[in-house]
Each structure stands twice: as structure tokens, then as C-alpha cells.
């Protein structure tokens, strides 16, 4: 973590937490080569950029890209981006894993246990693109387990309610498929709650839809001249360092989805706005027992990419993760032997970020992509899939009575799960649980099972096609093959000279797993967790392919959302949960110890607000010699500081009395944040400042809690070695002990941070930050201070000792400290050799 701590003070992120890019491209607060690469578009501008400022600072400025001759936009493409945290309500139960019963019972939990904090902020990020001719598409990444059509509809309805604009059919959104984000948004009968999303709650759905709509509005308000580009890389992770295949039943026919697609957005002057990266990776690094909101490995890639991009360019950018064929792809990250899930997640981000960055840097750009979008609400019926003709979704109930799975079937078996392609259920009776039997007391067809929502968008030469639920790679491959066949039929090349396809899985709706027919016939977990048999997935792809064909032929029509039948969903009303009074708001309940060594944990405990209103923002401040200022945000986001939105901190809620499922008139809403001091953090004097909303029994207002100063110092285990390889070359290493990993129940308390991404845990933490060196010769301290840089190839500091003029045969000692230390934390060692 190399930060110029004294160079910039950022204002706290209070009030509206949304962050957007303004029309001139600035950020502001509003209320190794791998794989084959193809790119699209034409580079029409230079890449010169200017530093970011807040929106308030640019209100009176003229958009540098404005056409001053006509007063209109300089580019046909208009675009804006925005980000909002979704860190509340802490207490909400999690979607993704079934059977999370017991544990904390909160006012926001259902069958499953409630959450007790978060590991970095879950975020919503939106890109709004408009071609200047009335065609607009909204691409939105969310931290959810998946898309869901009820939420898709609710977002459009909420946007109309709040802003009076019809965006139905224009929003394409998906979940990162973290198994540790908000549940309770899938309107299935309660009996299905234990499967993995918990029981539905109308207030949760409304809350989510509201936050989604507000993010879109912030992005729309930040519209300005823009350029768009895309690229694809195949076999970009050949050693499975980022993700790997998890389904053995379809081996060797199908492995993991090998493709990475990157969509880029920037201003005409080169100012970056966003990069959407699409690849396949389940969000299951963290175990089922977890009780913290977390975006898991997909979110870790976003965090790492944003920080890496800023480190390389000095400019901020939003990273948006979108899923592809992740139904049979799991996260990895353990190739050096790191065991804690949080460390593996960071490793995944560390490996993926440079690849995504290089892809973005090599994009070709266009400022005039045509935009088209079409969405369809489609009925799902046994006959539509063709099962009434071929009998491929039928069986024998209790091995005796013939049965057709007219309304779908679940947990289907029929062959032993193995990796023999000749072992197939094709043509054989299937043993399934009929879905209409599961829907006890509910009429069929059912909105969440017997309808779905599909979308296709075309932005220039990039086609984006959605698949609901969890597609396996076999289905994504089928989609790409069908796309290639359509392009061949239309005489259009596939690639930069024609059109390319990006498949967005886990988007728009959720219907569990989907596979290509031959893959489904192999059985196993992914086939059993499917509702619509062997042809369910291929039907989705065939439908979107037909929509694309109509779009290319100009026959998609002017109505964006076309419904085969009106939605069967019947959203219910709700009485909002009351807010609880905060009995100890603003009190500092637990101060940080006066001194914290690197890799140790600093804990700050304070009284805050009801999590139903919002979670606290806890930022770190440093004494720069003239007073305390905010430590700059590591991804460069204006108006934000280094805070608990990032992975170095874990935020927990610990109220008194403890949650019991009830809303009380008041309680002590106590929160605490743990910060594991990075091994390369600049030594100095710091403090925490917490702020957020609270209910004072009449209105929501803001509080602030300021901690006492504490010192960050070098760890006592720090060991410096200094060896002369020859009379003019000094090799140095600075190594700290790896902290022991400690959990409190399911929550990390120590050792969760990846301090060294280049060495295994048994090798110690090798510090790579620039050093300052000072020498003592024959007992006399020399006045000069020298700089030493880490040589990544040599895996140590290589210092030009000859420049010192010191006799290599003398008795020499060296003292070293981090060059960015505000208060030098010195480690010494004798110089040995040559």
C-alpha cells in the first residue's frame, strides 16, 4: 500500500453516498500477455488526461469536450457512470447457500441467520449509454446473488415513480453471484426460502429497487461526451490462478468458460470512466458459515482493479464485474498456499487486475456506436420447449406411474454422476420432483418459474445477451456457436470487423441452473439444480438469438419491452420497519491502543445509528504535521477517504441489547471496525473518524465519533538483511512474520489481509515499498540518505552501493525505513560481504 499520505486531504463521504462521473469526466459526490485478443472501434482521440476534482469544483467549468460552435455535444455517444454502496441493512440474511438456519435473528432476517457486519462495501455500479438518437441502454452491476425479474420490474417502476421516466426494458443488470449478499428478494413461496435466498420480503425488494434506481439516476445525471470500446481475450487464465472448472460430470467435453470480455468507457480526452469485465467465477471463496455482507471474489477483483488502475495511471475508474458461464466455475487464488479465503480473494484480484488493465489500455475507441436494446417477457411451457413431442422431460413417478413434468421438475436424476460422456439420461425416464407439487397451495403457472425476462443489447459492434439464472459453460458455448451461425447466415464477420457476443449470466431473472442439452444429460449437481430439463437453457439462447436476428433485420420494433403475457407477479405492499433511537450515538466506546505495529489489528468501537437507516463510514486520518487530514482513497475516488469500504477493514455491528428479531424503541447501536495494518503502511500518527445517520426520535440526522491518536510503527519481527554481492552492489530484504489467522466464530479477527502476493505464507512477508537508507561507517553515522527501489525480477532491493563512496571493506551498518514514513520506523542490519 504505497500512499503519499501527506499530499492530499479528502473530504469525508457523508450524506448521499453515491459517486458519479460528471460530464467533464471528473469524479464527484452526488445527494505478462495472455490469450488471443480482438478489439473493436476506432481510436479517435489522444489519451491526455487531467487530475480529478470534485463535482462542486467543476460546477462552473465548461465541458472541455463540448462543441462550442453549435453548443451541443461533441460526440454522438453520451454516457455517465455512478456507484452507490449497498451496505445496509446490516442484519439482512444472505442469499446463495441453503440451510443457513439458526444464528442471529434480526428484524431483517427470515429463515436464515442475519448478518452482523460487512467486509468492504457491497456496491451498485451503473453505466448509462445513449447514442444521441433516443436509443439508451443501462448496464448495471449489482452485488446480488443473481438478477430476478421481480426486481427488474421493480426498478423500472421505482424509476418512473421517482423520476417520471420509463426505462422498462432498457436496464440490463446482473448479480456478481456472491453467496454473501442480500437475500429475501426472490418471490418464491416460503417453502423454497431454505433453498438459498430466504423468504421474500417486500420492503427488502423495495429498498433494493430504490437503491438501483437512484444509482441509475446519478449515472444519467452525469451524462457527457464519451467513447466506447471492447475487447475479448481467450485462455487468459491458463493456469487456473483466478478461476477453474468445478464440474466433473461433463469432462472432458467442457472445461471452464475461457473468455474474458472487457467493455471500456471514457471521455474524449481520455479520462477513464468505467471498465466492465465479464468472465465466469462463482462467488464462493468465503465459506457458508460466513455472517458478513461481502461480494466475495468478484468484488475483490473490482477492488483490486480499481486500485491497480489508479496506481498505474493516477486516475480513478469504476470496475464492474459481470458474470458469464459461472455455473460450473469456482474461484481459485490458492496457488501459493494461502489458506484464508480473504487472502485467496485478494490474490485473485491481484492476478486478474493487470490483465484487465492491459486489455483496457489497448482498446480501440469509437464515439459513435449505434445502440439498440430489446427485452422480452417470455412464457415458459412444456410444449414450448418441445417436450410434448420428444418426451425428454418425463419419467416414472415412484418408478411406476408415467409422468410428464408439465410445470417443470427439480432434483432430476436418472444416471450415475460421472465423467463418462457415454453415461447419459438422453432418451431415459427422469426421476424428478414435479415443480407443481413443490408449489403447494400456489396456482400454476407461477411468476417466478413459468415466465422469464430476457434482453439483448447492441452497442456498436458488441452484442450483449442475457441468460437468467446460472449458466454452465456448455450453454455459453452454445450461445456463442448459435451467434456465429447467425452471423454466417447474415454475412457478418465475428470479431472486430463485424460483431461480437458477450453473454451476461445471472442477469434479469433467476431460474437456478442452465446447461446445454448434452451437458444436462450427464446429471450431477448442476443438472439437479435445474427446473426446466435439458432444453431449458437452449430455449433461452434460441429466444435471444431470434431477438437479435429481428434486431439486425430492423424488425425488433419500437417497443423495447414486449410481453408474451403480462407479468404473473403480484407485488405486495408492506409497512416499513420503524427506526430505533440510538442511545449512545457518537460515543467512543473503545479506543485504539496507543501503538499498533504493522500487521497488527487496530480496533475502534463507537456508538452509531440503527442499521436500518445505514451503516457507518469509518475513515482513517493521518497527522501530516499541520493537523489531521483524511488518508486519500486508494482508488483515487474524489470525496472519499481510505475507509471501511475497502478490504483492509471489517465492520461489525454489536448492539445492546443483542438482536432478537424485534424492532425496539431504542438501544445502544454499537459498531466497531477492525483495521489490519498493511505491512508496508507508512509509519506515523493516525486516528479513526466514524460518521453516519441516526434516528433521534424525530428525524434522521448525522453523527460523528472521533478517536484518539495512535502510532503505526514497525513490527518487532521485522528483519533487515544487507549483503554486498560485489563492492558496488548491495542487496537488501525486509521481511516481517506472517500474522496468525484468527477467527471469532465465522468472522476473521486477525490475519485476513494478503500482505505479500508474491510469496507463500511460510516465506514471511517481503516488503516491496521504496526504502530510505542511511549508513554508519566505523561507528560514525553518515549524513546522506539514499533511496532504494525493489527489483521484482531479483526479488529483493538492489542498491547501487558504489554511489555512497563507502569502502566496502569498512565496518558498515545500514538503517532502513519506508520512504513514505512520516515518522521513520527504523530497522538496522550489518552490511556483510562481498
UniProtKB/TrEMBL annotation:
<feature type="active site" description="Nucleophile">
    <location>
        <position position="330"/>
    </location>
</feature>
<protein>
    <recommendedName>
        <fullName>Neutral ceramidase</fullName>
        <ecNumber>3.5.1.23</ecNumber>
    </recommendedName>
</protein>
<dbReference type="GO" id="GO:0042759">
    <property type="term" value="P:long-chain fatty acid biosynthetic process"/>
</dbReference>
<feature type="compositionally biased region" description="Acidic residues">
    <location>
        <begin position="56"/>
        <end position="66"/>
    </location>
</feature>
<feature type="domain" description="Neutral/alkaline non-lysosomal ceramidase N-terminal">
    <location>
        <begin position="117"/>
        <end position="332"/>
    </location>
</feature>
<dbReference type="GO" id="GO:0017040">
    <property type="term" value="F:N-acylsphingosine amidohydrolase activity"/>
</dbReference>
<feature type="compositionally biased region" description="Low complexity">
    <location>
        <begin position="36"/>
        <end position="55"/>
    </location>
</feature>
<keyword id="KW-0378">Hydrolase</keyword>
<dbReference type="GO" id="GO:0046872">
    <property type="term" value="F:metal ion binding"/>
</dbReference>
<feature type="region of interest" description="Disordered">
    <location>
        <begin position="11"/>
        <end position="78"/>
    </location>
</feature>
<keyword id="KW-0862">Zinc</keyword>
<feature type="binding site">
    <location>
        <position position="177"/>
    </location>
    <ligand>
        <name>Zn(2+)</name>
    </ligand>
</feature>
<keyword id="KW-0746">Sphingolipid metabolism</keyword>
<feature type="binding site">
    <location>
        <position position="282"/>
    </location>
    <ligand>
        <name>Zn(2+)</name>
    </ligand>
</feature>
<dbReference type="GO" id="GO:0046514">
    <property type="term" value="P:ceramide catabolic process"/>
</dbReference>
<dbReference type="InterPro" id="IPR031329">
    <property type="entry name" value="NEUT/ALK_ceramidase_N"/>
</dbReference>
<dbReference type="InterPro" id="IPR006823">
    <property type="entry name" value="Ceramidase_alk"/>
</dbReference>
<dbReference type="InterPro" id="IPR038445">
    <property type="entry name" value="NCDase_C_sf"/>
</dbReference>
<keyword id="KW-0479">Metal-binding</keyword>
<dbReference type="GO" id="GO:0005576">
    <property type="term" value="C:extracellular region"/>
</dbReference>
<dbReference type="GO" id="GO:0046512">
    <property type="term" value="P:sphingosine biosynthetic process"/>
</dbReference>
<dbReference type="GO" id="GO:0016020">
    <property type="term" value="C:membrane"/>
</dbReference>
<keyword id="KW-0443">Lipid metabolism</keyword>
<dbReference type="Pfam" id="PF04734">
    <property type="entry name" value="Ceramidase_alk"/>
</dbReference>
<comment type="similarity">
    <text>Belongs to the neutral ceramidase family.</text>
</comment>
Amino acid at each position: 500500500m504505497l500512499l503519499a499520505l501527506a499530499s492530499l486531504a479528502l473530504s469525508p463521504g457523508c450524506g448521499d453516498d453515491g459517486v458519479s462521473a460528471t460530464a467533464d469526466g471528473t469524479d464527484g459526490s452526488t445527494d505478462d500477455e495472455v490469450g488471443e485478443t480482438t478489439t473493436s472501434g476506432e481510436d479517435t482521440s489522444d489519451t491526455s488526461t487531467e487530475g480529478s476534482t470534485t463535482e462542486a469544483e467543476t460546477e462552473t467549468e465548461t465541458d472541455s469536450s463540448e462543441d462550442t460552435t453549435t453548443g451541443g455535444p461533441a460526440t454522438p455517444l453520451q454516457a455517465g457512470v455512478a456507484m452507490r454502496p449497498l451496505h445496509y441493512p446490516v442484519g439482512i440474511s444472505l442469499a446463495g447457500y441453503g440451510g443457513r438456519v439458526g444464528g442471529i435473528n434480526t428484524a431483517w432476517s427470515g429463515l436464515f441467520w442475519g448478518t452482523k457486519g460487512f467486509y468492504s462495501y457491497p456496491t451498485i455500479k451503473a453505466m448509462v449509454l445513449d447514442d444521441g438518437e433516443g436509443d439508451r441502454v443501462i448496464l448495471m452491476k449489482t452485488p446480488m446473488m443473481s438478477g430476478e425479474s421481480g426486481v427488474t420490474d421493480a426498478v423500472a417502476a421505482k424509476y418512473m415513480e421517482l423520476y417520471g421516466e420509463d426505462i422498462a426494458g432498457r436496464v440490463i443488470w446482473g448479480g456478481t453471484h456472491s453467496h454473501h449478499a442480500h437475500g429475501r428478494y426472490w418471490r418464491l413461496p416460503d417453502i423454497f426460502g431454505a433453498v438459498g435466498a430466504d423468504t421474500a420480503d417486500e420492503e427488502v425488494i423495495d429498498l433494493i429497487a430504490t437503491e438501483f434506481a437512484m444509482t441509475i439516476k446519478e449515472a444519467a445525471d452525469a451524462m457527457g461526451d464519451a467513447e466506447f470500446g471492447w475487447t475479448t481475450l481467450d485462455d487468459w487464465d491458463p493456469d487456473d490462478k483466478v478461476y477453474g472448472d468445478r464440474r466433473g460430470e461433463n469432462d472432458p467435453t467442457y472445461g471452464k468458460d475461457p473468455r474474458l470480455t472487457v467493455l471500456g468507457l471514457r471521455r474524449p480526452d481520455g479520462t477513464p470512466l468505467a471498465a466492465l469485465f465479464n468472465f465466469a467465477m462463482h462467488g464462493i471463496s468465503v465459506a457458508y458459515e460466513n455472517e458478513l455482507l461481502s461480494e466475495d471474489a468478484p468484488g475483490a477483483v473490482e477492488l483490486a482493479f480499481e486500485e491497480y488502475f489508479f496506481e498505474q495511471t493516477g486516475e480513478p475508474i469504476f470496475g464492474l464485474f459481470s458474470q458469464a458461464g459461472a455455473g460450473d466455475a469456482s474461484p481459485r487464488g490458492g496457488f501459493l498456499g494461502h489458506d484464508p479465503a480473504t487472502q485467496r480473494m485478494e490474490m485473485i484480484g491481484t492476478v486478474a487486475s493487470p490483465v484487465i488493465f492491459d486489455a483496457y489500455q489497448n482498446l480501440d475507441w469509437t464515439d459513435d456506436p449505434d445502440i439498440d436494446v430489446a427485452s422480452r417477457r417470455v412464457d415458459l411451457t412444456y410444449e414450448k420447449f418441445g417436450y410434448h413431442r420428444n418426451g425428454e422431460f418425463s419419467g416414472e413417478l415412484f418408478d411406476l406411474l408415467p409422468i410428464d413434468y408439465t410445470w417443470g421438475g427439480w432434483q432430476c436424476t436418472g444416471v450415475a454422476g460421472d465423467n463418462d460422456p457415454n453415461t447419459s439420461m438422453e432418451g431415459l425416464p427422469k426421476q424428478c420432483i414435479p415443480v407443481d407439487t413443490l408449489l403447494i397451495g400456489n396456482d400454476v403457472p407461477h411468476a417466478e418459474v413459468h415466465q422469464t425476462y430476457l434482453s439483448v443489447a447492441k452497442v456498436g459492434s458488441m452484442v450483449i445477451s442475457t441468460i437468467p439464472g446460472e449458466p454452465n459453460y456448455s450453454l455459453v458455448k452454445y450461445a456463442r456457436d448459435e451467434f456465429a451461425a447467425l452471423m454466417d447466415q447474415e454475412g457478418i464477420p465475428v470479431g472486430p470487423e463485424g460483431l461480437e457476443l458477450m453473454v451476461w449470466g445471472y442477469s434479469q431473472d433467476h431460474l437456478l441452473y442452465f446447461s446445454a442439452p448434452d451437458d444436462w444429460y450427464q446429471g450431477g449437481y448442476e443438472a439437479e439444480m435445474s427446473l426446466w430439463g435439458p432444453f431449458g437453457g437452449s430455449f433461452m439462447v434460441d429466444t435471444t438469438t431470434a431477438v437479435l436476428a429481428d434486431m439486425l433485420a430492423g424488425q425488433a420494433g419500437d417497443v423495447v419491452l414486449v410481453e408474451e403475457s403480462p407479468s404473473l407477479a403480484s407485488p405486495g405492499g408492506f409497512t416499513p420497519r420503524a427506526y430505533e433511537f440510538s442511545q449512545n450515538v457518537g460515543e467512543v466506546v473503545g479506543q485504539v491502543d496507543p501503538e499498533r505495529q504493522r500487521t497488527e489489528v487496530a480496533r475502534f468501537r463507537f456508538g452509531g445509528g440503527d442499521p436500518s437507516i445505514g451503516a457507518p463510514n469509518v475513515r482513517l486520518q493521518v497527522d501530516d504535521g499541520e493537523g489531521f487530514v483524511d488518508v486519500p482513497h486508494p482508488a483515487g475516488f474524489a470525496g472519499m477517504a481510505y475507509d471501511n469500504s475497502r478490504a483492509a477493514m471489517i465492520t461489525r455491528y454489536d448492539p445492546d441489547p443483542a438482536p432478537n428479531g424485534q424492532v425496539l424503541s431504542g438501544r445502544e447501536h454499537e459498531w466497531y471496525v477492525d483495521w489490519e495494518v498493511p505491512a508496508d503502511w507508512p509509519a506515523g500518527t493516525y486516528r479513526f473518524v466514524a460518521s453516519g445517520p441516526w434516528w433521534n426520535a424525530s428525524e434522521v440526522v448525522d453523527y460523528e465519533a472521533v478517536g484518539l491518536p495512535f502510532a503505526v510503527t514497525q513490527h518487532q519481527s521485522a528483519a533487515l538483511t544487507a549483503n554486498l554481492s560485489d563492492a558496488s552492489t548491495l542487496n537488501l530484504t525486509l521481511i516481517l512474520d506472517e500474522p496468525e489467522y484468527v477467527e471469532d466464530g465465522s468472522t476473521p479477527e486477525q490475519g485476513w489481509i494478503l500482505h505479500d502476493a508474491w510469496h507463500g505464507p511460510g516465506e514471511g512477508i517481503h516488503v516491496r515499498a521504496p526504502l530510505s537508507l542511511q549508513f554508519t561507517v566505523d561507528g560514525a553515522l553518515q549524513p546522506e540518505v539514499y533511496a532504494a527501489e525493489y527489483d521484482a525480477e531479483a526479488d529483493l532491493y538492489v542498491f547501487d552501493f558504489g554511489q555512497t563512496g563507502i569502502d566496502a571493506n569498512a565496518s558498515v551498518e545500514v538503517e532502513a525505513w519506508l520512504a513514505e514514513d512520516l515518522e521513520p520506523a527504523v530497522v538496522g542490519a550489518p552490511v556483510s560481504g562481498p
